[in-house]
Write a structure and sequence with these properties.
Blueprint (H helix, E strand, L loop, with lengths): L1 H10 L2 H22 L1 H4 L7 H22 L2 H8 L5 H37 L5 H24 L3 H25 L4 H25 L9 H31 L4 H14 L1 H22 L5 H33 L11 H24 L2 H49 L1 H8 L6
Helix pairs in contact: 2-8, 2-12, 4-6, 4-7, 4-10, 4-11, 5-7, 6-7, 6-10, 7-9, 8-9, 10-15, 11-14, 12-13, 12-14, 13-14, 14-15
Length: 427
């Protein structure tokens, strides 16, 4: 009876339904990858060195993303609520023209640097073409899911997430297990799925009237001005999340062990991302209202923080058991430091929800100052700790860096936090 009552209550609350679908989608797409960790850590299929190469590939895509996307994903998320349909169509079309241009420029620059990148990090020549292509396709995918989320279409979001995951991992498993393609099989699966999703993206953009508007100079100027702080912010995110991998790049095997630990700990970030898919548009909508309902924003922030704290405690309780049950023994060395990584990721999830205020109000100066401070902390921590304690030091650097980033973010958004948590503000 109680269970039946719960589901009847859920049906009466569309917001809970949407949050549930977004959360389930993100956990399904990432959870399947977690279930396949025993395969991807089995030396018969992928060696630690293979996982190290995959880590460098993912980090390279993350590094390139802000320079190709120019912050257009963030702009689309907020301007969707600010512009009328015709203006948004022109803005969106202009954004894609810019992105295609930056992708071609990226290919040319990486081609010129290919010898240096190979000598310094061991990156293969094929990355010249694959990294920019995957980055652009990722941009298309993120634009699509962002618009679907803004249009409040959770089940469409679910369908795309499931399709992308099934194709990506299905192709990867076939190539890795049956044909012994190693790390290249994993990347091929990723590209196959992204190409299919990008094909759907084109259909979705045209059907909803987002493409084939006018390319306007004023949007180019506005986005280039807005792009600089966003590039700085995303460069900061790259340095925070991936620069440690490049500090360890001279030993692909050690990097592979460390990367799997980061992947396992990222379940906390996955849960955060799932919730933010629901919470951020709600916060943007509340901030866009004629009369801002601060109490509603306060409830969203407190619910989010409580959920993240609970997920962190569960991780601490069960990680050792799951690691020993599902991860190959060659990777167990990471159990000595994985909890530092998890703590750092928990601090990051608390900071990331506060980024909503930077993005909505387009606080360019604050974004730049905050990002430079965070990058400085991350690079200093990586240099100090990794130089002394290698992978163990990298994990400590993650915890220290994200703790300071949380403090910096709280100080930077103090004005908004104060307004939200003042008792006298009526909701």
């Amino acid at each position: 009876m109680a269970v039946s009552g719960y589901f009847n209550e859920l049906k009466r609350k569309p917001g809970l339904q949407s949050a549930g679908v977004y959360t389930f989608t993100n956990f399904f797409t990432k959870g399947i990858s977690f279930l396949l960790i025993p395969v991807f850590t089995n030396p018969r299929f992928l060696t630690p060195a293979d996982n190290g190469m995959l880590s460098l590939f993912s980090s390279s895509v993350l590094f390139l993303m802000p320079f190709i996307s120019l912050g257009l994903t963030q702009s689309a998320s907020t301007d969707f609520f600010k512009l009328d349909k015709t203006d948004f169509k022109d803005f969106f079309t202009t954004g894609f023209a810019l992105t295609i241009t930056t992708t071609l420029l990226a290919i040319g620059i990486i081609f010129l640097l290919q010898d240096y990148l190979h000598a310094t990090y061991g990156l293969p020549v094929i990355f010249v073409w694959i990294v920019p292509a995957v980055t652009f396709l990722n941009f298309c995918s993120e634009q699509t899911t962002g618009l679907i989320r803004n249009n409040d279409q959770p089940f469409r979001y679910l369908a795309i997430g499931i399709c992308k995951t099934v194709v990506e991992l299905g192709v990867a498993l076939m190539l890795i297990v049956a044909f012994q393609y190693g790390w290249l099989g994993r990347i091929t699966g990723m590209m196959t799925a992204l190409i299919l999703i990008s094909g759907y993206s084109l259909y979705y953009f045209i059907k909803n009237g987002y493409l084939f508007g006018k390319v306007k100079l004023r949007y180019i100027r506005a986005e280039l001005l807005y792009a600089f702080p966003i590039i700085v912010m995303q460069a900061n995110m790259f340095i925070m999340s991936s620069s440690d991998k490049f500090f360890l790049a001279n030993d692909h095997t050690l990097l592979g062990v460390y990367t799997i630990a980061c992947t396992f700990a990222s379940v906390i970030v996955i849960f955060s991302a799932a919730l933010i898919q629901y919470f951020s548009p709600k916060i943007f909508a509340l901030l866009s209202a004629d009369k801002i309902k601060y109490n509603e924003i306060k409830k969203l922030l407190l619910n989010y923080a409580g959920a993240m704290f609970g997920s962190f405690i569960l991780f601490l309780l069960f990680t050792a058991l799951f690691y020993r049950l599902f991860i190959n023994v060659k990777y167990h060395e990471a159990l000595h430091y994985i909890y530092f990584i998890a703590a750092g990721y928990f601090f990051w999830t608390l900071a990331s929800i506060l980024y909503s205020f930077f993005l909505f109000y387009k606080e360019k100066k604050k974004i730049i100052v905050h990002s430079f401070l965070s990058m400085t902390v991350a690079l200093a921590a990586n240099y100090f700790f990794i130089k002394r304690w290698s992978a163990y030091g990298a994990a400590m650097a993650v915890m220290v860096s994200y703790f300071f980033v949380l403090l910096i973010t709280i100080v930077s958004t103090k004005k908004y936090i104060s307004a939200i948590f003042k008792k006298q503000v009526a909701g």
